[in-house]
Design the sequence.
């Protein structure tokens, strides 16, 4: 099995690179994801030349500009060194075709959100680590998530799902982009888009219908960014229910009255929050084995990632 290339803050992988010589090892990453992901660790602070251990650094607003300075001495400014390192590192990462990135929360270099920015009198909690900010600007389609947020079942499932979707796109479309490859890719993610963001399902469908109006490489770049943006919307119980009912319609000529009633009851139980998503999905897969349908069998909504990850158990 080819592992999926994913960038990661080195401390989250368990490497002792933090300012105090410690790490922030994440068990979900190292135990559950490592068999499937090929992690490429990066510690901007160490790789740009700071020692371990080292003085703590933070984001400081000086003359209206956010700078990376030492906590106890704001005149010790590492901003330019970080900017130079980041530019070189992102160029190197570009060739790896990363499909995701796990960053360290609250870090002045790697934090994704709510990083403190210090001023003379207060600390704002609206910053982004300077390295991660540059990463997301350079690769706006790349799934990026913080280590702490991976403890949330919904956010965890959303991140891993996006990683697998981008990996599929990189494998099936990007090496040799053609209209047929794009159409085939889009077709197997129609139900996925319906679950994540019905508006994007509509807009991306219109895009694909007019693919002949584009240069294929321009289209692939535009589609990739909009497709990945759509998946950032978390799946809701309402949208999932609509998708399940849509799937149910494909069996209207094959199921018995009792089977239809059983499936409808499970879908309604899921809608009401009495059953997990896996309950109706398991029955749908059972019926799909009995009554194969080529369209449904290719839908990634039914099998978005390896079952062994158990990401839908709590949804």
Sequence:
């Amino acid at each position: 099995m080819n592992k999926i290339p994913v960038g990661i803050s080195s401390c989250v992988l368990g490497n002792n690179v933090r300012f105090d010589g410690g790490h922030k090892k994440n068990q979900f990453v190292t135990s559950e994801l490592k068999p499937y992901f090929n992690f490429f660790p990066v510690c901007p602070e160490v790789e740009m030349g700071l020692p371990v251990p080292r003085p703590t650094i933070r984001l400081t607003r000086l003359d209206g500009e956010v700078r990376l300075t030492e906590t106890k001495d704001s005149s010790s400014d590492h901003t330019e060194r970080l900017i130079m390192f980041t530019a070189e590192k992102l160029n190197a990462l570009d060739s790896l075709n990363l499909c995701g990135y796990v960053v360290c929360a609250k870090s002045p270099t790697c934090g994704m959100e709510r990083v403190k920015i210090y001023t003379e009198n207060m600390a704002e909690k609206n910053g982004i680590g300077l390295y991660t900010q540059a990463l997301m600007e350079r690769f706006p389609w790349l799934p990026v998530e913080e280590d702490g947020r991976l403890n949330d079942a919904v956010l965890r499932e959303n991140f891993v799902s996006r990683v697998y979707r981008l990996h599929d796109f990189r494998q099936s479309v990007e090496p040799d982009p053609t209209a047929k490859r794009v159409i085939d890719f889009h077709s197997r993610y129609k139900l996925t888009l319906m679950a994540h963001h019905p508006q994007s399902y509509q807009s991306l469908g219109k895009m694909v219908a007019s693919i002949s109006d584009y240069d294929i490489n321009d289209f692939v770049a535009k589609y990739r960014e909009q497709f990945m943006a759509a998946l950032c919307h978390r799946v809701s119980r309402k949208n999932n229910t609509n998708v399940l009912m849509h799937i149910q319609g494909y069996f209207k000529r094959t199921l018995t009255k009792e089977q239809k009633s059983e499936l409808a009851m499970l879908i309604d139980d899921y809608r009401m929050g009495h059953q997990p998503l896996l309950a109706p999905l398991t029955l749908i897969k059972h019926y799909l084995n009995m009554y194969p349908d080529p369209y449904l069998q290719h839908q990634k909504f039914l099998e978005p990632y390896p079952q062994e990850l158990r990401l839908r158990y709590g949804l």
